[in-house]
Amino acid sequence: MAEMGRRNSDFGAFIEKFTLLPPPPTSSSQQLPLAGLTFAVKDIFDVKGYVTGFGNPDWARTHSAAVSTAPVVAAVLSAGATCVGKVVMDEMAYSINGENAHFGTPVNLCAPDRIPGGSSSGSAVAVAAELVDFSLGTDTGGSIRVPAAFCGILGCRPSHAVVSTSGVIPMAQSFDTVGWFARDPVILNKVGRVLLQLSDVHLVQPSHVIIPDDCFQLLSIPSDRLTRVIIKSVEKLFGPQVIKHVNIGNYVSDRVPSLEHFMDRSNVHQEYIPSLVALSSAMRCLQRYEFKTNHGEWVTTVKPNLGPGLSERVWEAVKSTDEHIGISHSVKTELQTALSTLLEEYGILVLPTVPGPPPKLQTQASLLETFRVRAFSLLSIAGVSGFCQVNIPVGTFDDLPVSISLIAKHGADGFLLNVVDILYSTLKEQVEVAEKQSY
């Protein structure tokens, strides 16, 4: 009964509650950017005196308490925020579903019969349920962006390697990032300035806003309604001249020659973009290899109890070889160059975060396959390039959450957060207009 009470009170988000206070106030404390805000951390971050559980009881059982706190956690504490505990995550960060066979699945408040998205499921639910003001998570293949989209909140995956991952259990270092969730763009921006160590920067107008039409065709909901909201919002704020359209699949195919090694010529279905499917294959190849390097010995020695679906994925990684690893790195380099040319200094790519609404809880893996392929096609653009991406909720369709993402070049995180800040309310206005017109 106590367990049921806990789940009802925190929607299954927390794995352990405790309080870490910011440093004692000084005469300048009122200037602290995160003063008065509360946050939670994914169970992948070290907190001194607590075991970092990595979403799995066998991991927790075979590891000691952390002897120091991860620098990112310390940074937000020093900026005035109060930590209220650790939250549930997918085992070993190896899923985008958010279902945990051991600790339960945090409740998606937008759609309680559907998955919350992972692997930072508890981090997203804690924010969506207003249990905290913001939360910290990680994103390797999509673990900030997917739960943010499914739970109808903001989520930032920063540029790769600009926020410290020290004191964070690695998943696959070529893609691992520390990200964060918030319900409003002001807090998202404030947390970003602390973690990215940025001073206040003035808003720079985007030089061009690129809409990849082929990515919107992957959606399972009517895409024109979404693109209309985007175009009207951008036109209102920045003028119609900044909008450009592109076929990103063709662009990537032409400029990332190493993808040829990952192309599946039999996969010519209209519901996929072949070059982006190949991009996600290259990402998965390198991700598996790095996961094996990091955790293969522990998995083979301990033989942990892993949940369904997860077990197969982890053992597949443990048995993987280093074939195509060099080519995967070439794909990364070529994509970075190609997207840098496309976006230049102040360009933004706008695309769906995920291909549709969150799937129902405990959906069979085979039924999820088309969704997963489409999802990773979209997620791999920022994942492989290492560019920064922010998820923005844009209303609902059939009472289920809908989101878009903005991507900017590597290192343009401050610029991107400012654009999100100004675009957010205009998008909301345009969503309300579109919803009224549809009645």
Automatic annotation (TrEMBL):
SUPFAM superfamilies: Amidase signature (AS) enzymes. Coiled coil: none annotated. Pfam families: Amidase. Gene3D superfamilies: Amidase signature (AS) domain (3.90.1300.10). GO terms for molecular function: hydrolase activity, acting on carbon-nitrogen (but not peptide) bonds, in linear amides. PANTHER family: AMIDASE 1. This is Amidase domain-containing protein. The lineage of its organism: Eukaryota, Viridiplantae, Streptophyta, Embryophyta, Tracheophyta.
